[in-house]
Structures are given as C-alpha cells and as structure tokens.
Amino acid sequence: MKPAPFKYAAPDSVPETLTLLRAYGRDGKLLAGGQSLVPLLNMRLARPSVIIDLNAVRELSYIKEDNGEVVIGAMTRQRDAELSPVVRRKLPLLAEALGYVGHPQIRNRGTIGGSIAHADPSAELPAVVAALGARMVARGPKGRRSLDPEEFFLALLTTALGPDELLVEVRFPAHQKMGTAFLEVARRHGDYALAGVAATLSLDGDAIHDCRLTFAGVGPGPVRIAEAEAAVIGKHLTPQTLDEVRKIVTDRLDPDSDVHASVEYRKQVAGVLAARALRLAAHRLGGAR
Amino acid sequence: MKPKGSQRPRVLDQKDIRLRINGREYTGNVDVRKTLVDFIREDLALTGTHVGCEHGVCGACTVMLDGRAVRSCLMFAVQAEGVEIMTVEGLGTPEHLHPVQEAFRDHHGLQCGFCTPGFLMTALAFLNETPAPSKDQIREGLAGNLCRCTGYQGIVDAVEDAAGRMKTQTRKRASANAR
Question: Which chain A residue has its CA at the smallest distance from B32's CA?
C-alpha cells in the first residue's frame, strides 16, 4: 500500500462536507482531483488522518456567467474548463494557461479549485487568478466569504482558508476586451514552470492604458512587479520599452534555484517571457479591433 | 451516515465497490488507501496496466475512465465506484490487434514494452479527440508518458500512422453498416 493509513469519507453535498470539516478538518485533508495530493500521499510526505473526498459533491462542478463574471465551481475539471466555449470566449487568459497545466491525463482529473487551494508557487492557475483579480468564494461554519488574491494566497502552499472552510467557487471577471497572453518555459510541455508569466493589458489609442504582469515559479506565490508595469503604462510598445521591461523583471525578481534551473536562468527567462507576453497580448488586442 | 448531535460523522477504512472494466462488471472490498492501479492489478489480476513511478509522472498506469485518459496511480479504488474503465486488455487480442497496437508494432514504437500500455491508452484517448493530428500535437498529447527505450521517434510515427488506420477502420465499419 503506498499511502500511510487514513480514514475516508465521500460526502455528496456542501453541508455534509462542512460537517466533516468541522469534525476532522484540523488533521484531515480535502481530496479534489488528487493530482498533487495523491503523489504527496504516495510518497508519504503527507499523512492526514482523514481524507474527505469531494468528487461526489456534484453541486461544485459548473461554469456559469453572472453579471460580467464567469463563475467556476471548485470541482470543475481543468479539462472541462479548458474546452468550455464560455471560458474560451470570456476568459482567454485562463483558457491559454490551462493548456500548460500538467498533461491531458492530469487535467482530466485535476480541478480548478484544487489547484488554486493547493497554492503551488509554480502552478499556473494561482498566477491567472492574481493577474485577473479573480475572487475566491469560501464556505465555512460562519457562512460564505469572498477573498481577493492578495488576501487568499498567504505564502508557499498556504492560503487564508481555515481548516473548517471549503473553497466553493472562483469568480473571474470576463476579460475578452483586454489583451492577454500566458507564456511559460518548462523542461518539457506540462512540467512545472521554471518561469511563467500572465500579461494583461488594455490600450488607449496605440499606447498602453493599463497593464499587469504576474509571474509563476519565481517566488513563494504569484509575483507582480509594479515597476515593470509602470514602465509600459502610457507608452507605446517599442522594442526599447520591451527591453526596459525585460531588464527590470530580470533585475527585480528574486527566485530560488533548484536542480531544474539556477537563479540566474530563471530571472533571465522571466524577463524575456515578460517582454514576449506583452508583445503578444498587444498584438492580440490590435488584431481583435 | 449523517451525524447525530455531538457524534462525529462516520469515516471508513474499507468499502465495497462495483465498477465495469472492458465491458465486464467487477466487485471488490478495498482498503480506502488502495490505489486504483493496485486494485486493477492485484485484486482483479488485470496486469496489462503497468505501474511505474506511482506518483503521476511516468504515465505507465494510464487507463480510460469514462472515456478519458487518467493516471490510475493517482486515484483510489474507492473513487472508481460506478465508473466504466478501459485498460489495454480491452483494446485488441493477439489475433486482432487494435489499429493503434498494429501501428506501434509496425513502427517499432516499443522496445522493452513497459511503458506501452500507458502509451496505447493515452494515444487512443488523444486520437479520439484529435483524429488528424500534426506531429507537434502528437508530441504534446503524449508528453505525459515517459519511455526510456525508443527515443520517442517510433512512437510519434506510430500515432501518426494510427490516426490514418483508425479513419480507414471507421470508414469500413460505416460502409459495412450501410450494407
């Protein structure tokens, strides 16, 4: 048997899940798609005493539009979101980033909420959430609350969710009118990002009106560099501007090194990706007008 | 099952499950921590599905679950209650190989064969979704499976060829049905 012993429950509703969390949340663990948790269990790096399996909670699997937002249930499979016409049309940044999440076999099981609640710093979805200012909706014994990315992601693999709270949905602002691009470099397609970037921008004439650059894989969580964003706002995206962004990003980032990539390499790659992503996002916006 | 008063809700060590594999119904009583691939191999003796890394990296244990390729080492058997699974045993027989298997044989898409069951199931799921893929699409589609022998060239060629063979087979079936 690979994992250490645990007890198991498979609730089929949110209230039943909350009851289980209240009883076992402190030393238990929620199981969503299992594509990050089960490896940790199999390697016995995680030894929760109780697993609360969310896969029978069907009410958490949906994609719907609500007043300018696209609302995605936490247990929606990544593959279903990736193929959803609503996501492709209204959330092009999310659709593009999902293509980088693991492999098709992973996305067939992995969930939107699971990846966000896991808060792996090299994962794509937390960066997308931070780039778009999406809101995480949690339910707990005290009811429902909604958290901004800044409130939600606290540190490496750590979110503001309490042990008795459940992430139930993510509300993404529709952004089909913005230019967006997601780019990343990994050892092979589908591996964790050595460095990744989500770029979003809007134009005022030909100049950049607003812009946001959010990085994955180069810090303890999604990372933004205000200085790099400020360097393009109000300007035209000339090769000089893009080169300046590249330099600021490379200079300001403070990533860790590991067996896959050195600090210098990650900084370099992130800078180049930031410039490419801005150019691509502006090009897409121009093409759409 | 529902908690009453201060009683803690019930949690399980073991569970009875029922599922279909390759069109046949199976039942079993499983420890909740038993992975799906171990259940398939050890309890049901369907050893065609291989188990390699056991943490979702190598893809050797890929099976089709309700028509989608998934890693059976990253699921617990208890989670497979009521599902329909297809393993490599459901693909073809030694006398009548599946077109994907024929293509792997003809293009030397395997050497030791350890990764092959996973590649075949991944390839089948991929071709069902992408019937006329480019070489780049094939490489991306197969990126979740590792092969230490072939260097992948033969596998990519095999999947490209299999796309054509499956189309021919579909056409033949359609015309046979029309007759």
Answer: A8
User: Residue A116 corresponds to which tokens in the numbers above?
Assistant: 């966000």
Q: What is the pLDDT of residues B55-96, one digit of tens each?
A: 999 999 999 999 999 999 999 999 999 999 999 999 999 999
Count other C-beta atoms under 10 Å from residue B25's C-beta: 8
Q: What is the pTM of this model?
A: 0.94
DSSP-derived letter for residue A99 is T
Q: What does the domain layout of chain A look like in residue ranges?
A: 7-53, 59-173, 179-288
Find the closest chain B residue to A9 by CA distance. Answer: B11
- Site of tokens 């470099």: A185
Fold of A7-53: 3.30.43
Please provide the CATH number assigned to the domain covering A179-288: 3.30.390.50
Number of neighbouring beta carbons within 10 Å of residue A179: 27
* β A153-155/A179-185 pair status: unpaired
Q: Is-same-fold flag (A7-53; A59-173)?
A: no
List chain B residues with CB under 8 Å of A23.
3, 8-9
Which CATH number is A59-173's, of 3.40.50.720, 3.30.465.10, 3.20.20.140, 3.40.50.300?
3.30.465.10
Q: Check CB contact under 8 Å for B15 and A8.
A: yes
Contact B3 A23 (CB under 8 A): yes
Kindly give the residue spans of alpha helices, DSSP state H, lying in B90-152.
Answer: 99-106, 116-129, 135-141
SS3 A266: helix
